[in-house]
Amino acid sequence: MMRTLEEVRGTLWPRAGDRHGPLPPLLVALTVVTGLVDAASYLKLGHVFVANMTGNVVFLGFALAGASGLSAGSSLIALGAFLLGALGGGWLGGRNPEHRGRTLRAAGFAQAPLMAAALLVAALGATPPDRGVRLAMIALLALAMGVQNAAAQRLAVPELTTSVLTKTLTGIASEAGILGGAGSKLGRRGIAVAAMLAGALIGAVLVLHVSVAADIAVALGLVLLVALAVHLASRSDAPWTRP
Question: Contact, 153 vs 21, CB < 8 A?
């Protein structure tokens, strides 16, 4: 139990000199963003994800088989836009290969305008959103999340991918000490799961009881806070900044 609590503390409030510096809590915040935007896209934009692409591949298969309530076109747009965003995120990371803080800062400042555009479309579009509005928002949000995921992959902070939880949940169970494993890292992995759950819960409440625009506004606010925080932290060349 003490080890788990120490992992939680070290993830949310890293000690001075930690190998990953301020990156873990910032990536936890971006994991919340994933839950927020996927709540909006799944609940109001046509049963599609803009961050969790595994689901879209499955949805595409269902749609091609003729399942009702799913759109092959929406899934393809989300997949294509996400890949394009990841390509852009990879390019941004390649411009800052020796400084992880600047990599995340560049991703944040690229991601924010895309989410702001999605917010504008949501605020000005019809309610409920028509097909054109839905597709535009799917494309913009998937682009933004592709950038975010590319940055998270390049940063390589253990257990904090900001989107993929299947491997995280598998590790919690399969690497438990009672099985003779190296330890489930329940603290950090649990924080990642809780962050996405919190984002999805908050996002669903906002989408269902306020508006899609309110949900995206909260997600955008988190992205801007992360970008500002990492901008301030990136003024140094501390050890955590190096790959």
Answer: no
